[in-house]
Design a protein that fits this description.
Length: 347
C-alpha cells in the first residue's frame, strides 16, 4: 500500500457513516411502543388449547375465567380426558367446581384419602382408570362408593402404601360393580379371602392383571380359579402355601408373568411352576432368601423360560426367550418388544 492510498483510508475512517432514513417506517418501526396492548383473544384456537394443555388443572381453570372466548376453549373435552390431582389438595368443593369440565374424564390420579372422597363429586361416569397414592386412610365406604359410581372402570390401583382399612367387603363391591375391570392392584390388605377372589373371577371376565402386594393373607386356591389372568403378582405377601401354589397355578391357561418377589418361595415351587406351566414365560423372584440360599438351583434346563433373580444373568436370560437372536443382532430390547406384541395379540 503506497502513501496516497494510506491517506485515503485514514480519511474515510474519520468520516461518519449515516444510514439512509425511511420516512415511512420512522423510529416507531424500529422500536415499538412497549406499552401497546396485546389482544391475546386473537390467538388461534389450536394455539390456546395447546397452551391450556401445558398447565395443571387449577391454572387451567383460572385461565379459563379470564374471558368468554377462553372459557369456551377451556371446556374442550380433549383437555379433560386425564386429570392429575396429586400436586394439590383436592376437597369436595374443588371437585364440584371441576365437575362441569369432567364429563368425559377417563383417567384420574390422586393422593390421599381426602382426594379419594372428592372423586365422587366429579360425577365422571366415563372413568376408565383410577390410580391412588398414599391411601392408608381410605375406607371401605369410600372405595365402595367410588366403584359404584364408575361402572366402566378398567383399571384400579391403590398403593404402594398399605390400604389398612380396606376389607373384603370393598373388594366384593369392586367385583360386582366393575364388570369391565382389566387391572386390579392393591397393597397391604389384611385378608383376601376365597369368596372375594371367586367373585372377581366370576364377575370380571376381562381381568388380566392382578397385583395383591404385601398382603397378610391371600387364598392361594381361589387365585387358581382366575383363568383370565395374564400377569399375577403376590410380591411381599406373607403366609403363602407354596406347595399349593405350585400345584394349582401352573394350570392357569393364560398366565405369562408371575411375580413372587420378597417372599419365602422355595426352589421346588419355582421348579414346578417353570416346568409344568405351558404359558408361563417370566417368573420374577427378587429378594427371595430361601431360593437364593440354594446354591444348587439352576434354571438353564427351562428353555423358553426366564427367572428374574439376583443370582441370574438377567440379560442372557432375556435373550434365551427368543429362538433366533442372530437376525436381531442380539438386540435384547427388540426381542422384549416382540414378546410384548405377542402378548397383546393373545389378548
Amino acid at each position: 500500500m503506497n502513501r496516497r492510498v494510506r491517506q485515503k483510508v485514514a480519511k474515510k475512517s474519520k468520516e461518519r457513516v449515516e444510514l439512509p432514513s425511511n420516512p415511512e417506517i420512522g423510529d416507531a418501526g424500529l422500536c415499538p411502543d412497549s406499552n401497546e396492548d396485546v389482544d391475546w383473544t386473537s390467538l388461534p384456537d389450536d394455539t390456546v388449547i395447546q397452551l391450556f394443555s401445558c398447565l395443571n388443572y387449577r391454572d387451567r381453570a383460572s385461565l379459563s375465567s379470564t374471558c368468554k372466548t377462553w372459557r369456551v376453549l377451556g371446556l374442550s373435552s380433549c383437555l379433560w380426558i386425564s386429570l392429575d390431582l396429586r400436586a394439590h389438595k383436592c376437597d369436595p368443593g374443588m371437585a364440584v367446581s371441576l365437575a362441569s369440565r369432567c364429563v368425559n374424564l377417563q383417567k384420574i390420579r390422586f393422593r390421599g384419602a381426602e382426594s379419594a372422597d372428592a372423586i365422587i363429586h366429579l360425577q365422571a361416569r366415563n372413568l376408565r382408570e383410577i390410580s391412588g397414592d398414599y391411601c392408608r386412610k381410605i375406607t371401605d365406604a369410600t372405595l365402595s362408593m367410588i366403584v359404584a359410581r364408575h361402572e366402566a372402570l378398567e383399571t384400579l390401583q391403590l398403593g404402594p402404601d398399605f390400604c389398612e382399612k380396606v376389607s373384603s367387603d370393598a373388594i366384593k363391591a369392586i367385583a360386582f360393580c366393575c364388570p369391565k375391570l382389566k387391572k386390579l392392584r392393591l397393597s397391604g390388605l389384611r385378608d383376601v379371602s376365597a369368596d372375594v377372589i371367586n367373585a372377581l373371577a366370576k364377575h370380571c371376565p376381562n381381568l388380566i392383571d392382578i397385583g395383591l402386594l404385601d398382603c397378610l393373607k391371600v387364598d392361594e386356591v381361589a387365585l387358581g380359579n382366575v383363568v383370565s389372568v395374564y400377569f399375577l403378582s403376590v410380591a411381599g405377601t406373607s403366609n403363602m402355601k407354596w406347595g399349593v401354589v405350585s400345584h394349582l397355578w401352573h394350570k392357569l391357561p393364560k398366565l405369562i408373568g408371575l411375580d413372587v418377589s420378597r417372599t419365602d418361595i422355595d426352589p421346588s415351587a419355582v421348579s414346578r411352576l417353570l416346568s409344568l406351566s405351558p404359558s408361563l414365560k417370566v417368573l420374577c423372584a427378587m429378594n427371595c432368601p430361601v431360593l437364593e440360599e440354594d446354591n444348587t438351583f439352576s434354571v438353564n434346563k427351562y428353555k423358553g423360560k426366564l427367572l428374574l433373580a439376583l443370582f441370574n444373568d438377567i440379560f442372557k436370560g432375556l435373550a434365551s426367550l427368543f429362538a433366533d437372536t442372530t437376525k436381531m443382532g442380539k438386540n435384547v430390547l427388540f426381542g422384549v418388544e416382540e414378546f410384548k406384541d405377542q402378548g397383546q395379540e393373545r389378548r
